[in-house]
Specification:
By secondary structure, the chain is an all-alpha fold. Helices cover 97% and strands 0% of the residues. The protein has one helix spanning 3-107. The longest helix has 105 residues, at 3-107. Residues 1-19 form the signal peptide.
């Protein structure tokens, strides 16, 4: 090979390798930005999922509170019905007791 051809080849190789080395840092400078953007997107998605979970849990809590109120009302109604039944039974037993005493008084 002649010297001029050899010099041209070396010059081309030098230019190609220097271009590659120059571009490498530029890619590295962009990479952290891309990584941080991806991390930001991931954290945004995580926050969104957490918010959805919290909203879902709040809905469940509201439903449970409504069920508790409903059960408390039913319990109060049952206590009221039970009190009425007890009062009615007490009235009937008192009435029966009075009748038995009257019969004993009239028989005695």
């Amino acid at each position: 090979m002649s010297k001029p051809i050899m010099l041209v080849c070396l010059l081309v190789i030098l230019i190609v390798t220097s271009q590659f080395e120059w571009r490498q840092p530029l890619v590295d400078l962009d990479a952290p930005t891309t990584i941080s953007q991806k991390q930001q997107q991931i954290s945004d998605r995580e926050e969104s999922v957490k918010e959805k979970i919290i909203i879902s849990q709040e809905r469940h809590i509201q439903k449970l509170n409504e069920l508790v109120r409903s059960l408390q009302l039913q319990l109060l109604q049952c206590k009221g019905d039970n009190g009425t039944q007890n009062a009615t039974k007490s009235f009937h037993s008192d009435k029966h007791f009075i009748e038995v005493e009257r019969k004993q008084i009239f028989q005695g």
